[in-house]
Amino acid sequence: MADAAAEGKVQFELVAPERLLASQQVDMVVVPGAAGDFGVLPEHSLLMSLLRPGVIETYEGERVKDRIFVAGGFAEVNERGCTVLAEEAMPVEELDLGAARARLSHAQDDLREAKDDAERARYEREIGIAEAQIQAAGG
Predict the structure, then answer these.
(1) If you average pLDDT over residues 69-89, what whole number do you get?
(2) Do the beta carbons of residue 28 and residue 40 sit within 8 Å?
(3) CB neighbours (10 Å) of residue 65?
(4) Helix axes 97-112, 117-136, angle to 10 degrees
(5) Is 11 helix (H, G, I), strand (E, B) or coil?
(6) Please, where in the chain does CATH 2.60.15.10 lie?
(7) In CATH, what number does 2-92 get?
(8) Whole-number pLDDT of residue 121
(9) pLDDT at 2
(10) Can you give the pTM of this predicted structure?
(11) Using alpha carbons only, what angle is made at residue 58 by residues 55 and 59, rounded to the nearest 5 degrees?
């Protein structure tokens, strides 16, 4: 929104399949892009990026306000702000370390039994998501 940029803020929206997880004005948002993390400040240049599994951090001043895990998706930065469409997302504090470790174990087992390249790619992606969840949860 033009008003957000004028106030020195970034309009940040995060949409997951289940719900709208965030719609807020922040000082900065850091997003796990496919080619590396990138920060979005007011009046950022236009950008589109695929996301890798990781954590989005929103900032209020120099302090991290929110940390949200995303399993992947797409981010768009435009004159209105930063919008993330996530395949799967949840606040980091809701991550279950035990469930993430189980997800990793199951994906590793499935990968060993994969019958073709498509299955291998799917299980490798699942392993990447589980590993990122474990890291985000502090495990």
Answers:
(1) 95
(2) yes
(3) 16
(4) 160
(5) strand
(6) 2-92
(7) 2.60.15.10
(8) 96
(9) 46
(10) 0.88
(11) 135
